[in-house]
Amino acid sequence: MGFRLLIAEDDRLLAEAVSDYFTAKGWKVKIVYNGEDAVEKAVGRSWDMILLDVMLPGRDGFSVCRKLREQTGTPVFFITARVMEEDELNGYAAGADNYITKPFSLPVLYAKVMAMTERVRGTADADLIVRGNVTVNICTRRVSVRGTDCSLAPKEYEMLLLFLKDPNRTFTREQLLVRVWGYDFEGNERVVDNHIKKLRKALEGSACRIHTVRNTGYRMEVSV
């Protein structure tokens, strides 16, 4: 299989249990126990998934995730006992892809990780997302549309990544604001519409089309 997992969790028994489960499934696993080590081990290395505890010693998970998102698009799942809505929104704003609440089932965690990993990998290698004739290299942030390099502004790139990772999912404007602009953004929701317009233009003629879901938000469909 060749998948690689980084676990950042200070509960050693939990980290080892998760590690043993994924190792038995053929994954290569590395465990770190604090935020600084999480950043050091994650940046500049190729991982298929990062499982990140919120309450890490030294540097909390939110800070770690924000730092990772400056340099990598690797999927990040928060694993935490904190279930407050504000914490969850802060996690998504920091760039997390999902929230797993303790206690959890290892088979369910594995299923969620595999579903995300397979979507991100698409039909190419671990550093590429391929949807139809649109390709994104999540390490270099290079975007190709119909074989031609496409220059996107940072917010448009982050929005495209969300859609490509989860095609056919409808995102509300509020969700896009939180995931792309951050939980504390105080601007108008219309900023989403403006960036969608630019992103649609960049994807024009490709297999990836962004549809408006009336009174809700937007959804990307990929034609075969």
TrEMBL record:
User: What processes in GO biological process is this protein linked to?
Assistant: regulation of DNA-templated transcription
Where does the OmpR/PhoB-type domain lie? 126-222
Provide the positions where the record notes the PTM 4-aspartylphosphate: 53
Mind naming one GO cellular-component term on file for this protein?
A: protein-DNA complex
Query: Which SMART domains does this one have?
Result: REC, Trans_reg_C
Name the DNA-binding segment ranges: 126-222
Q: Residue ranges of the Response regulatory domain? A: 4-117
The answer to keyword Iron applying to this record is no
Q: Which UniProt keywords apply?
A: DNA-binding, Phosphoprotein, Transcription, Transcription regulation, Two-component regulatory system
Which GO MF terms does the UniProt record name?
Answer: phosphorelay response regulator activity; transcription cis-regulatory region binding
Q: Which Pfam families match?
A: Response_reg, Trans_reg_C
Q: What does this protein do?
A: May play the central regulatory role in sporulation. It may be an element of the effector pathway responsible for the activation of sporulation genes in response to nutritional stress. Spo0A may act in concert with spo0H (a sigma factor) to control the expression of some genes that are critical to the sporulation process.
What is the name listed in the Swiss-Prot or TrEMBL entry for this protein? Stage 0 sporulation protein A homolog
Organism, as annotated = Candidatus Mediterraneibacter tabaqchaliae
